[in-house]
Amino acid sequence: MQKIFKGFFILLIAAVCGLLLFRIYTVNHFPKAATETVVTDKLAAALTAHGHLTAYTWDIPINYDDPQAPNFFCAAPVYFPDAKCLQITLRCKLRQAASLGFDEDGDAVAVLFDDMGNASGAVTSTYAQGYGLYAYRRFVFEDVDLADCNYLRLSVFLKRDITSLPIGSLAVYESNYPQKTYKLSARERAALQN
Question: Could you tell me if 38 and 23 lie in one domain?
Answer without folding.
Answer: no
